[in-house]
Write a structure and sequence with these properties.
four-stranded parallel beta sheet; alpha/beta; 14% strand
């Protein structure tokens, strides 16, 4: 069973409308595996005393009682909140054998919604976890003193879904694409600056969670598309971009799409993210002071030797193999 993360913010009017009328214009999942269930659980954001009490006294029993006949449950979570702590205690109270896996993909010390309670619950949950999986060395280093049962497992990639035949950029104008959530962790000052360069055409593909009026009118916006159509859209362009802000929060993040971009054989334009430092020689690093883009240098990043190294990095990195790295431990 899978249910997505619970927002760490108060619901907006739009959220309440979607809940009341069961309306959601964004298709979150593309799934054909009937063994995975997406239950319609409803929990309140675990951000205040009242919401926490309602989750514990009302919603936990309502939604989780169906699992009480199962002998053993693995709880795999990536959001260290009181809600997760209460879910664990709910099953323990009913004598269910559980194993707990914390999948740490963010540095919650610097999360935009962080508070002392969130950090406190992360420490508690790390201590009681049977296994902690970190996707970056930064998260590994900050948690290794709390729990010794810790693994670094970087994101996987299904290479066949992203492989594109290598090609050099021959046109004087470079078409660049970013795909994914369009939100606050992107460097919009950089993106706006790029859009005003004469030799750049930039497209943002994904759900827009940023004020449109703060984006350059030269930036092309496209709605999110099904996963199976993603490669076809990407290969219409000359290069991919990872325009993440550089701050304490993003320094611990290594985006799953980084390895997807490696698989495309296309030039990768990126800010100098700390978590991808050992791969920087394969990237065209950029900031607002390094515009415009030098096409020759961009082409140099996809030399035969660089592409060979990229393919070695993503070799044997399927999600199934990544899953087995930690599943064998539990």
């Amino acid at each position: 069973y899978y249910f997505g993360k619970i927002g760490l913010r108060y619901p907006k009017a739009r959220d309440l409308f979607n809940i009341l009328f069961k309306k959601n214009n964004r298709k979150k999942f593309n799934i054909s595996n009937s063994k995975i269930n997406f239950p319609s659980f409803f929990f309140l954001p675990p951000i205040n005393f009242l919401f926490n009490v309602m989750n514990k006294k009302i919603f936990l029993n309502k939604y989780l009682s169906r699992f009480l006949k199962i002998n053993e449950i693995i709880i795999h979570f990536y959001q260290p909140t009181k809600l997760i702590f209460d879910i664990i205690n709910f099953f323990k109270k009913h004598g269910i054998k559980i194993k707990v896996v914390y999948d740490c993909v963010q540095d919650y010390r610097f999360h935009p919604s962080t508070n002392s309670e969130l950090i406190s619950f992360e420490n508690k949950l790390v201590k009681l976890a049977d296994l902690v999986v970190a996707d970056s060395k930064i998260n590994y280093d900050r948690l290794k003193g709390i729990n010794s049962k810790l693994l670094v497992v970087q994101p996987g990639v299904e290479t066949s879904n992203f492989f594109i035949n290598p090609k050099k950029i021959k046109n004087s104008t470079v078409s660049i694409i970013y795909y994914g959530n369009i939100r606050q962790d992107l460097d919009f000052e950089l993106l706006n600056g790029l859009s005003y360069c004469d030799n750049i055409k930039i497209t943002l593909l994904g759900n827009l969670n940023y004020p449109k009026n703060k984006l350059s009118k030269k930036i092309i916006l496209k709605d999110a598309i099904p996963y199976k159509k993603l490669k076809t859209e990407i290969e219409k362009h000359d290069a991919v971009i990872l325009p993440y802000k550089l701050n304490d929060f993003t320094s611990a993040i290594i985006p799953a799409k980084f390895f997807e971009c490696l698989a495309t054989n296309m030039p990768i334009i990126s800010t100098s993210m700390k978590a991808t430092k050992k791969y920087h020689h394969l990237l065209y690093l950029i900031d607002k002071n390094s515009l415009p883009i030098n096409i020759k240098k961009l082409n140099d990043t996809v030399s035969t030797s660089n592409l060979k190294e990229r393919n070695e990095i993503i070799k044997n990195k399927s999600w199934k193999e990544k899953f087995n790295e930690f599943y064998n431990e539990i």
